[in-house]
Amino acid sequence: MLNERITTLKKNLIEFAGIIESMLNKSMKGLQKKDKTLLQEVMEKDEPRANHLEVEIDDLSTTTIAQFQPRAKDLRTVLMILKMNNDLERMGDHAVNIAESGIFLVERPQVKELIDIPKMSEAAAQMLKDSIDSFINENPSLAQTVCERDNIVDELREKTIKELSAVMASDPAAIDRSLHLLRISGNLERIADLSTNICEDVLFMVSGRVVKHHLEEENK
User: Fold this and answer.
1) CATH number of the 2-218 domain
2) CA dihedral in degrees (38, 42, 43, 47; nearest 10)?
3) 81-139 pLDDT tens trace
């Protein structure tokens, strides 16, 4: 009975992650295609669905602990689902932030050709997908690669900051639009960071290795 409940929780988590991934993809597609309808759909349709599922997973996880009193690995799995549920909810908020900035930008002239921000989005979306897969399949190798890929997103973020800082310095009229692009890149970076957090927990759950502080030292 407990195994069935954990299986249900995992299925719900996969569904939740799929919604968040779709929100991210729609936000970026709406920005690139200047499609305001897609951006509004993220905020008006997808976000309420995501919030409803987040509450459902939280309630079911809490009930599972109270009803079955899981121990050892089962308890760690349920607790991790609770944490991942919270991380996914935060990713959803970041996707909404991107959509909000997208609505501001699509109605105004383009600051510069979008090159690095779409690359950030593709990398972050793949990291999100792989982080969930690494948990479901208990795959520490995949989790490790996600942690390593965080540097790619960080480098693209730094490049974007430098380029947009130069734009704002040379063209004050572009400051508002540039700040929204910086906001988008910052939200993409946070999605990648949260995916990395999930994978650090997967590595601990599967192998007992604590990698968080080790990775922080490497990135200094």
Assistant:
1) 1.20.58.220
2) 160
3) 999 999 999 999 999 999 999 999 999 999 989 999 999 999 999 999 999 999 999 99
